[in-house]
Amino acid sequence: MSAKEQVERLELLLARVKARAAEPRPAARVFTAPAAAFAAPEPAASRYTDDVAARAPLTAPPTAPPPDELQEVDELQQVDGDSIPPETVASSPPEEVRAGWSSPPPTTNASTPPEMYDDVDVEVSAEVVEVDIDVDDVPRHAESGVEPVAEVARSVPPVELDAIGPSLGDELEEVDGGARLTEPHEPSVDSEPTFQAAAGEATAIEAPVLPANEIEEPAPSSSRRPIAPSTAPNYDDVSAYAEESSPRHTPPPESGKQVAAPSVAPPRRAPSTVPPPSVEGHTLIGGWREPGLPRGAPPASLGLEAPTSPPGFDVAEAATRVAPEVTRGVLPATMKAHTIQGVAPMFVPKSFGELLDASLDL
Amino acid sequence: MAEAPAPFDPGSAVTFDLGRGAASDARGARVVFLPSASLEAIESSHPDALVRIGEELGRACGARASARLGGSSGVLGASLETVITQLAGELALAGIGAVQIERWGRALVLVVDNPVAGDAFIGAVLAGALGVASGRDLGTACLGAEGASVRYFVGSRETGARVTSQIAAGEPFAAVLQGLQGRSA
């Protein structure tokens, strides 16, 4: 097949699809989804227990929902006759999807000739196909980031749909504006968990409602952190931090970028009425002046004088240095401490012979 | 005030008879002039012979000094200055060195500056000169050198031997001389 022929066929297919999309469709049309739609481990939303769970299939992406889910939608539409035809829910993709569609979806087999769409009749059946998929078997943290779907919805006990019929209509009203629920969830102040700081306990944690088949993915590390203005610490009330053993810190982001956290208990400022003493007649960098006092030198009544110290003199070191303290006695410069008694015999030889004889006698 | 000693007269101390090839002292006794190196050679080979040569050299010097002073009685009755003047003159002519007297109390000490040979030779010369000049039997003991000067104690042979042993034991010569003073007192 040449490229030209392929383009022509694709254009025919596009025109056919547009014609079908423009045709009015029955309100309660139910079709079975192809088996390929169940290839992914979609959770079985066979039971809708409350309004949260009931909202889940209505916010599903424009992929083919499970047949039982479609069955549930038909029943819900019958309960609420004022609702908009469910073609935007089950039988047709959203508008933005149709507007941007220009080629067959990648899930379809590209080798399939377009004649298959002409000849094959879609088998419509109201038979409910139950698909038992064990959600627990799905790894919680798969490599692709797949998370368990609608943990809140599965934890709520089941309730009959008839029991919630009157209120379900209101919920379907919200579904009609379904684009609003399918929009990306933006964190807002109202949806953030709030803490009653005064009561000391967390209350009314309003988590964002997720559809049953919506994949709850963890927020990326670079996303904005929730800010709770109502839980801002009151720094004036220092007693609120008395029982804390460790300071509060905003956990560092996974990327390693440290987010500056405010100090738990900022140091108190002692009220001062006298300016600090200046060093060598100079004030500190930037200067300091007591509010309310006139500019210039401090008044003499304060008794503050600039210390005069030699250069290199460290006041703190001089205060802690240990120096010897010497105490000396009072003594005279000279003192007589000996007494000589008698006269030493002096040998003065009169001749050489006398000295020689004296030396020989030694 | 004592009279000044008569100066040493070296005239006619040595006569050289060139025709006969002889040298003689003032008394006509023949003398031989030896190089100082010969003394070192004899000291190394025959130390006792060098001591013997020294004693004979000193005797000759003492005899000439004594002759100048009128014999042994004149030497013993003369002053220290007169005796040392004549004795030092004779030892200088012989080339022994410059001799002077030190009196350490009652001890007589001779100091020789610029000695020509070793302690044993010089000690023998001094003992021979003083013995002949005074007519006493005496001995000398080396107290040690101080620079170019060597001190010798003059006394009896027994005392000289004791001083030599004490100096060899390491005692200072002043202490040895001090010890001799108390012994005699």
How would you characterize the overall build of this protein?
The complex is a heterodimer of chains A (362) and B (185). Chain A is mainly α. Helices cover 23% and strands 1% of the residues of chain A. Chain A has helices at residues 3-22, 51-55, 67-79, 95-100, 115-119, 151-155, 165-176, 179-182, 315-320, 352-360; strands at 195-196, 201-202. A two-stranded antiparallel sheet of chain A has the order 1-2. Mean pLDDT of chain A is 59; it is low at 30-65, 79-100, 107-112, 139-143, 150-156 and 158-205. Chain B is of the alpha+beta class and 185 residues long. Helices cover 50% and strands 21% of the residues of chain B. Chain B has seven helices and seven strands. Chain B has helices at residues 36-45, 47-69, 72-77, 80-93, 119-134, 157-168, 173-184, and strands spanning 14-17, 22-25, 30-31, 98-104, 107-113, 139-146, 149-155. Chain B has a four-stranded antiparallel beta sheet with strand order 4-5-7-6, sandwiched between helices. In chain B, helix 2 (47-69) crosses helix 4 (80-93) and helix 2 (47-69) runs parallel beside helix 5 (119-134). The interface between A and B is medium-sized, with 13 and 28 residues.
Number of helices of chain B: 7
The ordered string of helix (H) and strand (E) elements of chain B is EEEHHHHEEHEEHH
Which blocks of ≥5 consecutive residues of chain B have pLDDT under 50? none
Backbone CA Rg of chain A: 48 Å
Which properties best describe this structure?
heterodimer; A: 362 residues; two-stranded antiparallel sheet; 23% helix; rod-shaped; B: alpha+beta; four-stranded antiparallel sheet; 7 helices; globular
